[in-house]
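Reviewer 2 asked us to include a model.

Predict the structure of this chain.
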Amino acid sequence: MGLDIRAYKNLKVVENPQFDEEGLVNWESEWMPGDSMKWSEKHFPGRGEGIDPDTVYTWEDSFSFRAGSYSGYGLWRSQLDKFRDKFRIDHGFSELINFADNEGVIGPVVSKKLAKDFNDHKKAAELFARTLGQYGEYWIDLYKTWKKAFEMASENGAVEFH
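Predicted model (structure tokens):
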């Protein structure tokens, strides 16, 4: 088990979604944030700003990636926090560092802020990765993947943790 991520770009409301007998939408072309987002908004209020958990959406573009096992993602996120401290990046990445590691939704407003964080500090992140030995290449590759996810979601999209 681990943390999987899906980033969406240009979400559009589905006016008349079709639900199956279990109350699910067609997951290949539709997405409803639902209980996962309700949970994350309860524990991390405002992260999903711009998204309604009870609305069904379709999207222009999306991509998925594995953020790692739960412990692997925890280690990566811990290193992101150390990077932030080492380079004195006040409040940078805090919406990701202080977020769930298993489920939830980050909406377009917070995604735009995180995309800026990842873009503004890319060169420093590359320097930091060099200090991590063999782990550094993996760390910076995942940094770039998160950067891509938040850039995509900043365009009226979302990042879903599942």
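Residues 2-161 form one domain. DSSP finds six helices and six strands in the chain. We have added this to the supplementary material.
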